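Please review this one.

:::
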Amino acid sequence: MIALAQRVRLARVEVDGAVVGAIGQGLLVFVCAEPADQPAQAARLVDKLLKLRVFADAAGRMNLSLRDIGGELLLVSQFTLAADTSSGNRPSYAGAAPAALGRALYDEVLRLARAAHPRVEAGVFGADMQVHLVNDGPVTLPLRV
């Protein structure tokens, strides 16, 4: 799985003008499944996200996790993270999982995150979403599990 995690002060996702997920301080995470991914990758991603030490401690060092600060998590599916832009000007998305597998793995990430953390919001798989955020730092981290 590929993910892009952004430390945010706030973020929200809209579909057709309606807010479907919104958080305050925490992580906005774009999630992409690849064809060979299994539920084990979903579990590793959730574990990594909840333990990722990217929030400031009392000394101002990035030493605290989402759990440590009681932060919120917003998960958004994004198959374009698997884009291959190595040739030409039109990206290839052949590296992304087929839609049925992508949905199943995204749903698994969401299920595991909600079971492990008290405040988890989500976008809508496959929808045309508008994502609004205030990136804190900015801190943006690519992850592959």
